[in-house]
Amino acid sequence: MSGTTIDDVVKRLSIPETDTKLKFEAATTLRDSLDHYTTGPIYSPFLKRLMPIFINILRGQCIFQSNNMEQRLRHCILEVLHRLPTSPSPTEPFEPFAPEIVDLLMGLVRNDNEENATLCVKIISDIMRHQHKVLQGKVQDFLTLIQELFEQMESVVREQLDNPTGPGSSQPVNSQLAAAAAPSTPGSTQTNFQSPRPGSPVAAVPDLGPDPQQQNRSLLKGMRSFKVLSECPIIVVSIFQIYRNTVQQNVKAFVPLIKNVLSVQASAQQQAHADAAAKGQIHTGVSSGIKNRAAFGDMITAQVKTMSFLAYLLRQYANQLSDFLPNLPGIVVRLLKDCPREKSGTRKELLVAIRHIINYNFRTIFLPKIDELLDERTLTGDGLTVYETMRPLAYSMLADLIHHVRDSLSPEQIRKTVEVYTKNLQDNFPGTSFQTMSAKLLLNMAECIAKLPNKNDARHYLIMILNAIGDKFAAMNRQYNNAKKLSKIYHQQLEGGQPDPQAEKDKAPEWDEIDIFSAMPIKTSNPRDRASDPVADNKFLFRNLMNGLKNTFYQLRTCNVDLKLDIATVPTHWQDVSYGFNAEEVEVIVKLFREGAYVFRYYEIEKPTAEPQYSSPVEYMANFYMISSSKEEKELLETFATVFHCIDPATFHEAFQREIPRLYDMIFEHTALLHIPQFFLASEATSPSFCGMLLQFLMERIDQVGSADVRKSSILLRLFKLAFMAVTLFAPQNEQVLLPHVVNIVTKSIELSTKAVRSQLTTFCC
Predict the structure, then answer these.
(1) Between vectors from CA 215 to CA 210 and to CA 216, what angle results, nearest 5°?
(2) Among candidates 186, 151, 339, which has minimal Cα distance to 271?
(3) 579-615 burial string, b = 16+ CB within 10 Å, else e?
(4) Cα(585)–Cα(465) distance, rounded to whole angstroms?
(5) How do residues 505-524 score in pLDDT, each as one tens digit?
(6) How far is Cα 364 from Cα 533, in angstroms, rounded to an integer?
(7) Matching PANTHER family, A to Z (predicted)?
(8) How many CB atoms neighbour CB 746 within 10 A?
C-alpha cells in the first residue's frame, strides 16, 4: 500500500471531519491494492471492517458535478465494490452484506448521477449472479427498476435531443466542433472519412483544448441516462438465465417496452430521413439538427443493446413479438443508417444481432430491405474503423441472408447483389475469406439468376460473374511471385526462424512487393499482419471458384439466345451447350481460360524445384509422371477443362485458336497443364475442333521435335501423341481432321530425321 496501512485507510474514511480530498486519496490507494485483501482468510475481516464505512459514504448526498471531490470519492468507493469478489466460497464472506448493498445500490440508481448509476447496475448484476441464495426476493425489484428505465426512454429522447436544455446538452467546445465537422451524408455517392478526428494522436495539439476528462461537467440523473439503459439489456438476459422463475412474468412486461425503445427517434433525425426520402436519396450519419451528438450516440447504443435483447427473446418467445416482426427490418436499417461513425463497436454489435435474428429463420421479413442493405453507406457507414475491420462481418451477414432468400429476390435485387459482390470479389484487402464468401454467394446464385424471366438480363449477370472470376484469376497471377516470397517467410516463422530484415551486400531481403500499408501515415490493418500463408489462401479461393464454374456455365445454357436454327442442321449435343456469344462475351471466355490455367502455377510450388538433366524425352516424361500432380490438382484440372465443353463449337474454336500458343508456353512453366489438351481431346464435344487446331499448331513446330532441348521436344512429342490418340477415340470425326496433315507429317518427318540432333524424331516417325 506504498507506506499506507489498512488502519490509515479506515481512519481517514471513517472520520467525518477528514478532508474529502484525503478520503479520496485513501479510497484510491485501497482500490489500487485491493487484491491483497480479497483473497484468503483476511477477506472476511476486511469486509466486516470496511463495508459499514462504504455504506455510510454512499448514503451521503448525491452530487451532479463530475469534478466535485465528493463525487470522485463516491465513484471510487463504487469501483472498490465492483472489484470485490462476490462469488460464493466455502465461507461466503460477502453473503451477509449482499441484501443491504443491493438495496442501497438500487436507491442510488434512482437518485444518483449517471456515472455512479452505471456502475451500480453492473455491481447489482454481479452480486445477483453469485448470491442468488439470499437475493431471490430482490430480483423482481431490480427488474421493475430496469423496466422503469425503459419506460422513460421516450421522454429522455425528447428532453435531451429534441429540446436540449438540461445538463445533458452541455458539451465541451471540442465535442461541438467534432459534431460540426462530421456532417451527415444524404445522397452521398462516395465514402467520406474524417481524419484526423478530434482526439486523434495525429491531431494538432493546440486544437485539442483541455482534456474532457478534466473538465467539470454537469451529470445527468441515472434514471434519465442512455448510458445506464445501455447496461440493462444484457443484465436482464443474465438474470433470466439464473432466476428462471422470473422469466414468464417479465417477458410479457418487457416486450412492449422493447418495442417502444426501438421505435423512438430523435425528431431532427426523423426529419432528415423524411427529407432525403422525398428527394429519392438516403440519409446516413447524424443529422445537423442534432445538437448533442454524444447523447445521440448513447441513444443509438442503448437501442442496439435492446436489439440484442430482442434477438435473445426471439429464440423462445417469437409468438409474443409476432405483431412487431414486420416493423423490425425497418428499425434495423434505420439503426444502421443512424449509427455514428465513431461508434464502431455499436455497429458491430448490431451486425451480430442481425445475424442472430436471421439465423432464427426470420429472413423473409427482410426481403423489402435488401436493396437498402446492399448500399455500402447503409451497411458499413462511412467510418474508417468499420471500413477497415468490419466489412467481412457486415457482408458475410448480408450474404447469409441473401443466400437463404435468393429464390425470392426481385430482378433489381439480383442485379444489385451481383454488382456488390463481384466488386467485393476483387477486393484483396480484408483477406481471402472475404473473397471466398463473395464467390460462394455469386456461384450459388447462378440458378436463381437463370430463372429470371428476362433471359438477356440473366445472361448478362452470369457473364458478369464469369468476368469477375476471370479478373480474380488475373489478380492471383499478379500476386504469384510476391505470394511465393511471403509464403516462404511465413513457413520460416512457423519453424521458429525469423527472416533477416537487413540488406546484405550480395543478397537483398525478401521485401513484400505490394505492401503499401506499412508506409501509410495513419496505420490501418495490414494484410501481411494476418499471419497466414498467401499461397494456401489463394489455392483455397481458387478451389472454391473452380468448383462453382461448371454450374455457372451450365446455367448459362438455359439463357441461350434464340437463333431460330433448324434442329436438323445443328451440331451434335447442340442442346447441351451455350451459344450466341458476342465479341465481348468471347473475350470473357478467353480471359477465364488464360488466367485460370496460369493460376495452376500455385500447385507447382509444392513440387521439387531442382531441374535435373534428361537425356531423352522418354526419361523426361517418365519423370513427369513420377512427380505428377496431386489428387486435388488433377481434379481441378479436369473440372477446369470440362467447363469449356459447355460452349458451342464456333465459340470454342474462336477462343482457343489464339490461346493454344499461350497454353503451349504455359506448359513449360507448369507441365501439369498437359492434362488440359488431354481432356479436350478425350471429349466428344470438343475433340474434333481442338484436334484440328492442335495439329495445325504442331505442324508449324514439327521441326523442333528433334531439337537439342529435351523438354521442348518432349512436350511437342506428347502433344502429337495426344492428337493421334484422339483419332483412335473418335475415329469418324477425327480421321477427317487428321487426313489433310498425314502426307505432310510423313514427308516432314523423313526430311527432318536426317537433321535431328536427337533420335526422338526417328522414334516419332516409327
Answers:
(1) 160
(2) 186
(3) bebeeebbebbbbbbbbbbbbbbbbbeeeeeeeeebe
(4) 12
(5) 555 555 555 555 555 555 55
(6) 39
(7) ATAXIA TELANGIECTASIA MUTATED ATM -RELATED, TRANSFORMATION_TRANSCRIPTION DOMAIN-ASSOCIATED PROTEIN
(8) 11
